[in-house]
Amino acid sequence: MKYPNNIKKNYKKEISYKNRGMDLENLINEACKYYLEHDLAIIYKKPTPIGVVDVDYKNGAVISKAYFKEPSTLDYNGIYKGVYIEFDAKECQAKTSFPLHNIHSHQISHIKNIIRHGGIAFLIIYMNGCYYLFKGTDLIQFICENKRKSIPYSIIKKLGYPLLFRYNIGIDYLKGIDEAYKGDGYFEDTEDKN
Fold it and tell me: Residue 185 — left, alpha, or beta (φ > 0 → left; ψ -120 to 50 → alpha)?
């Protein structure tokens, strides 16, 4: 862009991925709050375990140095209709596939353990302007049967369950759970409350 006196200014758009996924997490947090207030489910965002090294007391006890004590597992856990649930929120900028490097190996092991012990584990994936519930069993099966480093979007659309944004709730993932796990033996003896 040229300004008077032939002064040229260049603008470089800064791209930051620091808070990528926070909008998704905020919508999920709103849903968790709604579900708790309406006694539909008890699901919380898990804090990441950190070890504090240094605190700046001049600015109101601000942590200035810390480290991760251990790798975190999945973002959310709780109970719904008597079943243990754990899931992670993933936002994908790619249009054609979901990169598997977005899921760490310890998270995959954790998903396997939850499923083996009778719980429900899944991902909520935001991709191409849509929210999907992608079952942990489908994720594990895809990883075991494929050598790919990403899940094609066509597979996410085929196996994933679309989640709706509802104004008063946020992302209504309980409806997705009901749909995804219908007939899997988890909720046959419970009454549908929502």
Answer: left
Q: What does the alpha-carbon distance between residue 17 and residue 7 come to, in Å, rounded to a whole number?
A: 32
> What pTM did the predictor assign?
0.77
Beta bridge partners of 146: none
**Contact partners, residue 160, CB within 8 Å, separation at least 6:** 125, 132, 133, 134
- Tell me the pairing of strands 130-135 and 120-127: antiparallel
**pLDDT mean across residues, the chain:** 83
Q: What is the DSSP string of 4-36?
A: GGGEE---------TTTTHHHHHHHHHHHHHHH
Which domains does the chain carry?
19-180 (3.40.1350.10)
Task: Note the pLDDT tens digit of each residue in 153-162.
Answer: 999 999 999 9
